[in-house]
Write a structure and sequence with these properties.
By secondary structure, the protein is mainly α. It has helices at about 10-25, 75-85, 95-115, 120-125, 140, 145-155; strands at about 60, 65. Strands 1-2 form a two-stranded antiparallel sheet. Strand 1 (about 60) and strand 2 form a beta hairpin. Helix 1 crosses helix 6. The protein is globular and about 40 Å long. The mean pLDDT is about 90.
Amino acid sequence: MEQQAVGDWVTPEIAAFLNSIAEAEGTNIENSYNIVVGLGKEGAVPYFSDYSQHPNIIGMRTSHGPSTAAGRYQLVKQTWDDLVKKNPELTDFSPNNQDKAAWILAQRDYKTKTGRSLADDLKNGETGYLSRLKTTWVGFSIKDPAALYNKYRKNTNATNR
């Protein structure tokens, strides 16, 4: 059973986009907000239960070194800490704050890489630039973010986030 974005601030476009990240990252499943990268592969701990802070668990080692990616959007500890410094409202690693952090990160990186507003582009149905986020979420290198977004946007409305 997949999970959906949880905050009352989440519009249908944001929900569809966040669901796209989760599917690309392989975390659009039950318990997605407490997944540790690797899901138990190579002896990794598959889940965490304390949302008071980023779990900072090395879930697996990649070709780039150990990874602390966690939660629905597979945010690494360093990225999380950076976001918290600039966004003090991110007081814990709760599902709502994971959603907010992913959205903040997506908007920031999208603006940096395209000079455009992610919120405006999604609202206007412009998905041609979403692939620019493949360095933010590796899953977008494997799965087409525009196709994922369009799939979720078609099935997401104000009452079904």
